[in-house]
Design goal:
Layout lengths: L1 E2 L2 E2 H12 L4 H15 L7 E5 L5 H8 L9 E3 L6 E6 L4 E7 L8 H7 L10 H11 L4 E7 L2 H4 L6 E4 L6 E4 L32 E4 L12 E5 L3 E6 L7 H9 L4 E4 L9 E3 H12 L4 E3 L7 E6 L3 E5 L1 H8 L4 E5 L4 E3 L4 E7 L3 E3 H11 L5 E4 L5 E7 L1 H4 L7 H11 L3 E8 L3 H13 L4 E5 L10 H7 L3 E5 L10 E5 L2 E6 L10 H10 L6 H6 L22
Parallel strand pairs: 3-4, 23-24, 23-25, 25-28
Antiparallel strand pairs: 1-2, 3-5, 5-6, 6-7, 8-9, 10-13, 11-12, 14-21, 15-16, 16-20, 17-19, 17-22, 18-20, 26-27, 27-28
Length: 544
Amino acid sequence: MNIGPYTLEEYKNLVKSFHGYLAPGLLVGGFMVDHALNNLPEGDFFDAVCETRNCLPDAVQLLTPCTIGNGWLKVLDLGRYALTLYEKYGGKGVRVYLDVRKLDKWPNIRNWFLKLKPKDQQDTNALLEEIGEAQATILGMTMVEVRFDRLEKKHKDIIAICPACGEAYRATSQGLCKACRGEVVYLKMDGHTKVRKGGKPKLTLVPLDKAVGHRALHDMTRIIPEKEKGAAFHRGQTITAGDVCRLQQMGRLNVYVEDEEKRDAEWVHEDEAAIAFAGAMAGQGISYSDTPREGKVNLTAERNGLLVIDTKRLLSFNMISDVICASRQSYSMVEQGHKVAGVRAIPLYLSREDFRKALDTVNGEPLFQVLPLRKAKAGILVTGTEVFQGLVEDKFIPIIGGKLKHYGCEVVQTRIVPDQREAISGAISELLAAGIDLLVTTAGLSVDPDDVTRQSLQDAGATDMLYGMSVIPGAMTLLARIGQVQVIGVPACALYFKTTGFDLLLPRLLADQVPTREDLAILGHGALCLECEECRFPRCTFGR
């Protein structure tokens, strides 16, 4: 009885030395790998896939040249106790799994694998004996062909330097490492927390009655409930005798004042920090004030357009101690002069170390942009035999046309065709020939057998098709392109609901921000329309 090149006892000893103890999963895994090796299709080189992280990858690494380190073993944590060995270049292979339908004769294996008994109530010796006796009889096997696209990395990794801890880490984009985002298992790491000499900046604090003639170190806020909130005194303002009473009314008994002798290069004033952060965050279409108010700098839109935010790097910035940036929702439509974000330091003085860390998370590409919307040349294609035959009056063209014209788009041509693939694909060709750069199709996207718009688009050459999005109403929305022409398919729900997924996606398309499948999935959090009696979109939670 062998497992690969080893006798059963040799393999057991190998497992003990490698794994620390004779794990039942590794013993079963040995038989699984051996079974797969004995049934491999022809080929000189093979790779492996494990569908669980538990034990099985160790068996593959013990019995084959495939390891996680050399990249020949991929772990897809699907939660299934199964492995596949496949020909490296052709993809044909064999998948072996523990078949629960074959466990009735083996009660100890069944109790262990299905966790029918707590571990401390299982008979480990009897379990190991059953596994040694059952061998490959408890396994299932099927021939497969691997999809290489599912095994390839979706993003190219880079080696980044974390601005918080200073360590190098593998990343898909710049920002904080996972440990500095909170995914750390250590309660304490000596050497990673630097104690600053003095602990805090040297500030000059004077009683209010002795503050006359001094200059305020920071803005001082006055609040009148429900009426007023703002800086009553500004940084650098000289305090006069007449100001004392006002400051007392504001609850000030002591004030911080400027003192040139106590300037410390190791600390950054809240105003300078906020200006530096805003400058690094502002991209095209964004401006900011170089005069902070109450320690905060606002970023504003320089033009009408679509606000696009690098949300991952915004998160990295906000994970740094003592700094914050709050913004509007990414992909919101904004108007010139409107506020889109505000950034500030929390304390009056920020340590230069934390200032550098925060700035390092931002430097590079900007966090905020306002992108202009192009004035598309659109074609509208209405599908529906009942509309084509005049049995039902078309409402789609005025609805879609009105939404397009709201953004300054031109409706070049429209077509109404029956639910026939040839008619639909022919009308698409006519609209493309008219010079459109945006095609809007309507209806014909449901599961009904007569709805063939999606297939007709493929006939007309549509590629990069995404069908279905996590938005209600608008779940059956479609995105694609035909050459350089953008395509959006609008389901019939747009005839009833004033606002659908079309309204969320149209500005993105006009700003050339074509959504990915992940983008459409992210929309699901907040994309449930409440169907208010009076639609107030976009001044509501839909798509936010």
